[in-house]
Design a protein that fits this description.
Layout lengths: L6 H15 L5 H8 L2 H11 L8 H11 L11 H21 L2 H12 L1 H20 L10 H19 L4 H22 L5 H10 L2 E2 L8 E2 L6 E3 L2 E3 L15 E2 L16 E6 L6 E8 L1 E2 L5 E2 L2 E2 L2 E4 L15 E2 L11 H18 L1
Antiparallel strand pairs: 1-2, 3-4, 5-10, 6-7, 7-11, 8-9, 11-12
Helix pairs in contact: 1-3, 1-4, 7-8, 7-9
């Protein structure tokens, strides 16, 4: 009620609540009692923006009395009386705050933030639904159903905020706001930090695909990555562009360079049309002369496995070469020059 732009919506909602409280009267009498209500309220509150709208039920009772119509006895039970006392206490507190310019300015600022709070309140309700239905921790929707749920909650929260409600409903809304604050604070503690995201990337399991990939492999943070995607095989070519086999790779410290976690799985054969995996496969290591397994020998090979356990080859499966991306690549310029010089020397000797 303290921002001019908020007056029309508030007054319209208040007038609707007043007409609802007069709902037991004939339509023509309701129209006569409330004719010009919005215009009168807008004029009155334009002169005093700090003034608050009264309870619509009480206002409707005053209209009845002024017109000489019987006023229904208020059906307030014990809970209704308590709610009325709480509402009166809240009104007294607001009047006290309005008496101080600083606190009044703060209240005016908070009023401008109400639309933002309605959205936050809906998001808090979304987090509560997530805790019940198993998608807690998702700060934003991940699928269409969750997105629709959040949109419905936002619409409902805005609807609650725009309308004028009876005292007991306002009490329920206030209680819901308290729960929303608690839920918001609890959800914000689950927001991952940069370190959390880095650790999750290291510890999590993720899909990988080398063009023939299938399923998921447990990742312990080792391996080679290109633009965030795990590299599962490496094909090396010599200076003349010819494919190499059995290449052992090491890093700058002499550590074996591995691209696939032992036991990782892939796809040995895909359907040409649907690209659906027909035969799963397990990556296989090479054996060193010491008898140790080597996972840093490229290109890596793959043996047939099963859908029940794609990480282990089936009995009797033989490790197979994986198709290279290129049969040959352009040779290095230095290698071409060397071949040219060698050819020239051979030609000179033959003369």
């Amino acid at each position: 009620m303290n921002a001019t732009t908020a007056l029309p919506a508030q007054i319209t909602a208040f007038a609707a609540a007043v007409r609802a409280a007069l709902g037991d009267l004939p339509a023509d009498e309701v129209e006569e009692l409330t004719d010009g209500l919005e215009a009168d309220l807008a004029e009155a509150y334009a002169e005093d923006l700090a003034r608050e709208l009264p309870d619509p039920v009480s206002y409707a009772a005053e209209l009845r009395g002024a017109a000489g119509l019987p006023t229904p006895a208020p059906q307030r039970g014990r809970h209704g009386a308590i709610a009325a006392q709480v509402a009166d206490l809240g009104a007294d507190v607001r009047r006290s705050l309005r008496a101080n310019p600083a606190s009044a300015a703060l209240l005016d600022f908070l009023v401008t933030l109400r639309p933002a709070w309605w959205i936050v309140r809906a998001w808090a309700a979304y987090q509560c639904f997530g805790a019940v239905f198993g998608f807690e921790g998702d700060l934003l929707p991940r699928d269409l159903v969750q997105a629709v749920l959040l949109i419905v909650l936002v619409a409902g929260s805005v609807f609650l905020g725009l309308r004028a409600w009876p005292v007991w409903v306002r009490g329920l809304i206030a209680a819901g706001n308290v729960i929303a604050v608690v839920a918001t604070l609890a959800a914000l503690t689950q927001v991952p930090t940069h370190d959390d995201l880095a650790q999750a990337w290291t510890d999590s399991s993720g899909p990988y695909d080398d063009g023939y990939g299938y399923g998921y492999a447990e990742s312990d943070g080792t391996g080679v990555y290109l633009d965030g995607d795990e590299v599962t095989n490496i094909f090396a070519y010599n200076a003349r562009g010819q494919a190499l086999h059995g290449v052992q790779l090491f890093d700058q410290d002499g550590r074996p360079l591995t691209t696939s976690v032992p036991g990782g799985n892939g796809c040995l054969e895909k359907d040409a049309e649907t690209q659906e995996c027909l035969t799963p496969g397990a990556w296989m290591p090479d054996l060193l002369e010491t008898g140790a397994q080597a996972w840093n020998v490229f290109p890596m090979k793959m043996a047939e496995s099963s859908f029940e356990d794609p990480t282990k080859p089936v009995e009797g499966a033989v490790a197979q070469d994986r198709p290279a991306p290129f049969l040959k690549v352009p040779a290095l310029f230095s290698a071409v020059q060397a071949d040219t010089k060698a050819d020239a020397k051979a030609a000179a000797k033959s003369r």
